[in-house]
Amino acid sequence: MSKPITIALAGNPNSGKTTIFNALTGARQHVGNWPGVTVEKKEGSTSHNGRVVHVVDLPGTYSLTALSEDEIVARNFVMKGDPDVVVDVVDSANLERNLYLAVQLMEMGVKVVLALNMIDVANGRGMKIDHERLARLLRVPIVTTNGKKEKGIKQLLEVAVQEADKPAGDYSASHVTYGLEVEDELTKIEEKLESGPTPEDRVPTRWLAVKLLEGDAEVEKLVEQRYGNDGVLDQARKSRSHISEVFGDGADIAVTDGRYGFIAGAVKESVVVDRLDRVYLSDKIDNVLTHRLLGPVIMLLILYGIYQCTFVGSEPLVGYFEAFFARLSGFAAAAIPEGLIQSLVVSGMIDGVGGVMGFVPLIAFMFFAIAILEDTGYMARVAFMLDRVLKSFGLHGSSVLALMVSGGIAGGCAVPAVMATRTLREPKERLATILVAPLMNCGAKLPVYALLIAAFFPGDKASMMFALTLISWGFVLVSARVLRSTLLGGQSAPFVLEMPPYRVPTVAHERSFSMQADRSL
Ligand code: GDP
Ligand code: MG
Predict the structure, then answer these.
(1) pLDDT digits (tens, 9 = 90+) for 192-241
(2) Which atom of ligand 1 is closest in space to residue 508's alpha carbon?
(3) Full-prediction pTM beyond 0.85?
(4) Residue 510, exposed/middle/buried by CB under 10 A (0-12, 13-18, 19+)?
(5) Does one domain contain both 307 and 431?
(6) Most distant pair of Cα atoms in the chain: their distance
(7) Would you state the pLDDT for residue 23?
(8) Which of 194-208, 371-385, 490-504 has the lowest mean pLDDT?
(9) The CATH number of the domain where 203 resides is what?
(10) Residue 117: CB within 6 Å of ligand 1?
């Protein structure tokens, strides 16, 4: 029996990782969390010629600088978790940007296989990718795939297993050369590293040197632990300031430029683009949906639609649940003689479980609506349009969903709102959203407000309720601002707001969505 293989799936968000993960592992999946963080960990398995192949879906990242939890999780797993091979799922239609991660994986000295996914989209845009040539240039195996149609998946598995089986010494991905000046400094740092103790893990010294030059705090910590104070960090500091002097920019920028230069070269040699001037359908849709005036109006309508879907759509089901539990407790009350036991069963168990179950239809409807928003790519536009406003209160563009559902439109509910924050990646923004969302004008507060309004402002009911909703918004935003500058202080990691092209949502994706919903419940 040959030993089992572990494949890690890496890739930018929206490159089709989950789709490929599903295609590889089918129903044999397990969803959990990475230890110590709220980043979701998906694992599954498949087999190849009778051999067990574990597949781990890493969080989607653009880079492996340790700026966000996602990136740290992905990087640490590659560094310490010892996947036998990393399959980097690349969105072929955005090849250059996606290769940035690939290049960093290659630098880490792990075995990398590129899955040029969305090859249909790339071809549709007139991109002709000579993937064999690209594979020769990068010196890593490349397979083209169409995750949606499950094309190329078998071959991807085949190639990944082959690569995993290669002896480590055979591995020779190309590496970026950063130009004389930077290379000189890298050599100096590497010399210092090599004069220290020989590390037991497999991180190449070159990678450590590059990271030190970039000023990566996590790697600095690692090196400090391993080498103590014997001048490695000093050398790195000296090199950094030397590079800044020469280039007038930070050393990290010189390194980033080097990588992009390398990628631009590789792409130029292996990709031909016809029809450069074509206006893509997505751009046309964006012209309307993110229009300066029309965009916000459409957005409000869509958010209102989600609100309606969550609360009105689920109403019959909620009613059904309530009726069911009412009958159940009536039945139990009749069957069990009055006393402590009856009280425990009726008021404790049945009413208790019923109270919680009453929220389930709400949450299910809302998650369904969110899944569609995310899958079509519209969620990213909402985040984009609102990011600047909400950022100034320390929140994220996507926080708006939670705020709306929790009662930003009077009569919402904080329970599904808190769950809606799962679309937020940045922990502090998510926590701030969770903490302030319940301050909105939720359904439970409405009767009280209605009572007070009827007593004090009988002539002006509707406008008073509207005023209360506006006051709630103000209160929520100010509270968020206060939280983010006190308890939840600190800069959010800068990150690129991804604008995926619009897509028709697929059922295959819904499977992973429903699994996530299961877990969160
Ligand atoms: P992830 O964020 O990397 O996990 O990406 P997903 O797997 O969620 O995919 C994002 C969207 O791209 C989904 O709507 C998929 O159905 C779609 N998709 C995935 N692979 C392909 C592909 O090869 N071609 C096309 N046209 N769409 C794809
Ligand atoms: Mg995914």
Answers:
(1) 888 877 666 667 889 999 999 999 888 888 888 887 767 889 999 999 99
(2) 16
(3) no
(4) middle
(5) yes
(6) 88
(7) 93
(8) 490-504
(9) 1.10.287.1770
(10) yes
